Amino acid sequence: MGESSEFKGWEELIPDALGLIFRNLSLQDRLTVVPRVCKSWCRAVSGPYSWQEIDIEEWSKQCEPDKLERMLHLLFSWSGRAFHRLCVSGLPNDSLFSLIADHAGSLKTLELPRSQITDSMVEQVAPRLAGITFLDVSYCTKMGPRALEAFGRSCRSLVGLRRRMYPLAVADKESQDEEAHAIASTMPKLRHLETAYLLLSTAGVVKILSNCRELELLDVRGCWEVKLDEKVVTERYGRVKVLGPDVVDHCYERNLWEECSDSESVYSWETMDEGDFVLDGGSDEEDGIWDDGDGLENLELRFYGGGPHADAFAGFHWPPSP
Amino acid sequence: MITLISSDKRKFHVLEEVANQSLTIRDVIEDRRGRRRADRIILVTNINSKIPEKVIVYWLRHFLMPEEIAHASMSHKKAEKLKKWEAKFFDTDIDTLNDLILAADSLDIPSLFDGACEKVSDILKNRSAEEVGEISKIENEFTHEEEEEEIPSENAWVWRNEFA
After folding, report:
1. What is the pTM of this model?
2. Membrane-spanning regions, if any (chain A) (predicted)?
3. B132, A34: Cβ pair inside 8 Å?
């Protein structure tokens, strides 16, 4: 530990700070490096603060199904149902989807692109996912309108939906307009909807526009059948921004998805060069402010009080180690 | 004017509007409103003058645009400038970052807390456990057997294929 009495070592840092630090490390660092640094870090990295967001999308793209299952079990046991975002690519089967739902107590953002989940399983499981507000079921080709409807009926606060498709994956399909109807009839609160390359018709999209009155962004790029008159859209559905159907590279100026799904916040500022401030750290204490005891004691702010460091952990209960 | 007093008894005079970025201080000021001079003094114990100084620098930099920060509506240029400044601000030794994190936590300054934690992550990224221990001056309390057997094997399966 440091020489100064003020400095508490890194192993004793408050758990939410450690959690945040670990969160920014790669999955590999978190699982194989951090636990070996010291026992308290090992405890911290296997606790809920480090796993409020579980993003294993990159890793899951190239892992075998049994490993994915093992990983989910491990991370769920560490997170203790505290995670509010889960991002996994390519769930291989329905049973893992059910496992996710069993641990989804705090879940707000669920991203399951390329997953093999089916309509009937979604119908069973969706009621347990009632709290989610953002859902990504892009490239999930085994599910269709029934699943979307089940999500819509259960997740009443859903404001964001991603349902993109690969052009080739829909080549053999006639129409996916039923999905548009499911969205329009069960997800009235949507503000952000992406359906790139989904086989929608103009009627389907118009139905969405008329039912989802809070829509701010609609991405129908690659939905070639959709013909919208820009003027009419502006007149009738004023606030919504429609992208497509032409495919152009477009960065959302103000990406609601990013904004609302707990990604890092953005800070800004006014131009102000360093040195424009005056630090008055003078030692002119003759007026006795220091002794002006009246009311001072209650104003005292303790940075990390004098108590044993264990205080910092008071109130946090780590889940049992797996 | 608010006066912050560090453990080495240095005084820092800060405009109330600036210090308000600390939610803790804002609450204290709110509680004490209407009192006499003593109300304006906030004692910050257990922390040497280096940290309040840095915190105030941070406040001043962020002071002018609180609404833009809240609504993420700043221009690209400004955002870039802020980023650069912040990179410089957090470019400090790891012990200072530790103190900043604790200060940001107890004074409740979320953006400072996040920024300092992020910088620490950057420092620790892609290193071995031994290097991390060295940087953060943490002594490894694992016994040799624990080290050899339990820890590495516990999670190594995750990457066995790709990183063998």
Report:
1. 0.75
2. none
3. yes
